[in-house]
Design brief:
single chain; alpha/beta; Arc Repressor Mutant, subunit A; D-Maltodextrin-Binding Protein, domain 2; WH_DNA-bd_sf; WH-like_DNA-bd_sf; transcription regulation
Length: 297
């Protein structure tokens, strides 16, 4: 008993004709006859009363009732798998760090999903190490972040270099200073990124290597809150240059001449991971957008 034979049986039962069932499926009538003969042999019952007019036996009526939802489900599965193969359906679970998530991903993800109504999509925002761990465990398909801690089954592909800059209020003296050096910051109150961010790690590593110290007792995990705190005069902030894409009124992003810091941002995946057509299509769009990003200095 197979789906093709069951479909043929349903067509005969619905149309009352072996010939019409054969025509609808582009089969020879002998093929249809053989399908029904084998189906009856497999089930051990007669399905049709053959005479001037074809009619279902009682067993045939029971079978028709049972297979109707089955054939509907089978067709639904076929359509879903066809859509999956075309990259029009499926599920994507991705992770990303801030501020990449807020400032760069919407312009890719929103149009990508707009006409793909059968796609299930989940975006998790977190820090690099946590996202890398979840990708390694198979809980996320991939992540856009910096280089994660060593995981045997992860690979990292760089897409762009994230540069750090100094965010100052528009009215601050440093906003108009031609060249800003590290020494200009020694008397300023600095707002640092959150403890687990790549930005914070690269900044602290630099300060340690240089034997330098900056006054900072405030760490804020949200880049957007950092920017608003700067606008309201709480202090100056070291932030990813990409933050300037949001163009927060009242701030100026400046380069610190002798503190040029950056870190790579890219794709984290499992080794030998096989991506479906849907995931590949999204990764191609993300790659195109993110590799085009260049820092303003």
């Amino acid at each position: 008993m197979d789906l093709k034979s069951l479909k043929t049986f349903k067509l005969i039962a619905t149309n009352g004709s072996f010939q019409q069932a054969a025509q609808e499926q582009n089969y020879a009538q002998s093929t249809v006859t053989m399908q029904i003969k084998k189906l009856e042999e497999d089930l051990g019952v007669k399905l049709f009363e053959r005479g001037k007019k074809i009619a279902l036996t009682e067993a045939g009526r029971v079978l028709l009732e049972e297979i109707t939802p089955l054939l509907f489900s089978a067709e639904s599965i076929r359509q879903k798998l066809t859509s999956y193969d075309k990259g029009e359906a499926g599920m994507i679970r991705m992770g990303a760090i801030e501020p990449t998530t807020s400032l760069m991903l919407p312009s890719v993800i929103v149009p990508f999903l707009k006409d793909r109504h059968h796609v299930k999509f989940e975006l998790e925002v977190g820090n690099t190490n946590n996202l890398g761990h979840r990708v390694a465990k198979g809980e996320l398909d991939f992540a856009v972040c910096s280089i994660p801690s060593a995981e045997e089954n992860l690979v990292f592909t760089q897409w762009f270099e994230e540069t750090l800059g100094l965010l100052v209020p528009q009215y601050h003296p440093l906003a108009d200073k031609e060249i800003i050096n590290f020494s200009d910051l020694t008397r300023e109150r600095l707002l640092f990124p959150g403890q687990n961010s790549a930005c914070r790690h690269i900044l602290e590593t630099y300060l340690m290597k240089q034997g330098k110290n900056l006054y900072s007792t405030i760490a804020i995990g949200s880049t957007e809150m950092l920017k608003k705190a700067v606008v309201q005069g709480l202090g100056l902030a070291i932030v990813p240059v990409i933050s300037d894409k949001s163009n927060l009124e009242g701030t100026v992003l400046r380069k610190v001449n002798d503190m040029q810091l950056s870190y790579p941002i890219g794709l984290v995946q499992r080794k030998n991971q096989i991506a479906g057509n849907l995931q590949t299509a999204l990764l191609n769009e993300l790659r195109r957008e993110l590799t085009a990003w260049k820092a303003p200095w």
